[in-house]
Write a structure and sequence with these properties.
- The chain is an all-alpha fold.
- It has one domain: Orthogonal Bundle (ABC transporter involved in vitamin B12 uptake, BtuC).
- Helix content is about 75%, strand content about 0%.
- The chain contains 13 helices and no strands.
- The chain is globular.
């Protein structure tokens, strides 16, 4: 497959997934109802489906882009936000903010919860990066460190849930499953802003991140400030993951499966892999959420989209982990 073709096809897949996501759902409203102002069907399409589809597109795009960046910066093909514990750290930060009542504060809550999630994700990212830089973790050891970080984060979350107000406990439990609820336009705007800035930094540094595969000394000889580049990239990744997790909860394996599949098609060049992952990741999560919504009338409940991505991505992760290294 030619490189430009992969990006174009990814963009077309995202547009198609978004159109289907807006057009179909558990109700009978269709895409044409978006233009029928003043009707209940219009309110469903524009007020409910559209923001949810936009959230799925932004979240999937951000997670897939961060997964591609993590794999290149850490030089580990199995690195992704959920596995490395970054999503767990972000979930802990957001849980503290939500349990503390920050989410209910007008205006501040929309920005404060992503900020708290960013702080948690950044702390987890710093732990992983510190282990890599100290030379104490590489390959499978990085993944093991991520598992430990995740375990600590989830233990803290369970402790907070045990002490939380019963009125907030139900929403916390549901949110922690990974759920694309209908966001307010204010929440969606803040998430888009965080993701746009973080992904913009990664796109700007894509060519320099490519040079890290040559090794630190070779990259430095070509004019790359390796430590500053790594810090900047991981800081941007934490911002993206924190913003997404603060609204959707932790959604697993999108950042692993999408970049891995595309890497086989377009190669490891992050200048191409990153934008292709953006489009394909958005299309993947929107499609998974559409399946969830279409199945809701059949199973009489709405399955969290995080459960769907985990069921799809978990076996793929095990296969990649067990595959012999060449």
């Amino acid at each position: 497959m030619r490189i430009p073709t992969a990006i174009v096809l990814g963009a077309l897949a995202l547009l198609a997934a978004m159109a289907l996501g807006v057009a179909f759902g558990s109700g009978t409203a269709g895409l044409a109802d978006a233009f029928a102002r003043g009707t209940r069907a219009h309110d469903i399409v524009v007020g409910v489906r559209l923001p949810r589809v936009l959230l799925g597109a932004v979240a999937g795009a951000g997670l897939a882009a961060v997964g591609a960046a993590f794999q290149s910066v850490l030089r580990n093909p199995l690195a992704e936000p959920y596995v490395l514990g970054v999503s767990g750290g972000a979930a802990l930060g957001a849980t503290v903010a939500i349990a503390g009542g920050l989410a209910s504060v007008p205006l501040i809550g929309a920005a404060g919860v992503p900020a708290a999630a960013f702080a948690g994700g950044l702390a987890a990212t710093a732990l992983v990066w510190g282990l890599v830089r100290a030379g104490r973790a590489e390959g499978a050891s990085i993944l093991l460190a991520g598992v430990v970080i995740n375990s600590i984060a989830w233990a803290a979350i369970l402790f907070i849930e045990a002490l939380a107000d019963p009125g907030k406990l139900q929403s916390l439990v549901w949110w922690l499953m990974g759920y694309l609820d209908v966001p307010t336009w204010q929440e969606l705007g803040f998430v888009c802003a965080y993701v746009a800035v973080g992904v913009g930094v990664l796109l700007a540094d894509a060519a320099r991140i490519n040079l890290l595969s040559l090794g630190d000394e070779s990259a430095a000889s070509l004019g790359v400030d390796v430590r500053a580049l790594e810090r900047r990239a991981l800081f941007a990744c934490a911002a993206v993951v924190g913003a997404i997790v603060s609204v959707t909860g932790p959604v697993a394996f999108v950042g692993l499966v999408v970049p891995q599949a595309l890497r086989r098609l377009v190669g490891p060049d992050l200048r191409v892999l990153l934008p292709a992952s953006l489009f394909a990741g958005g299309a993947t999560l929107v499609a998974c959420d559409l399946v969830v919504r279409l199945l809701a009338p059949v199973v009489h409940t709405e399955v969290p989209v995080g459960a769907v991505t985990a069921l799809l991505g978990g076996p793929i992760f095990l296969l990649l982990l067990a595959r012999p290294r060449g």
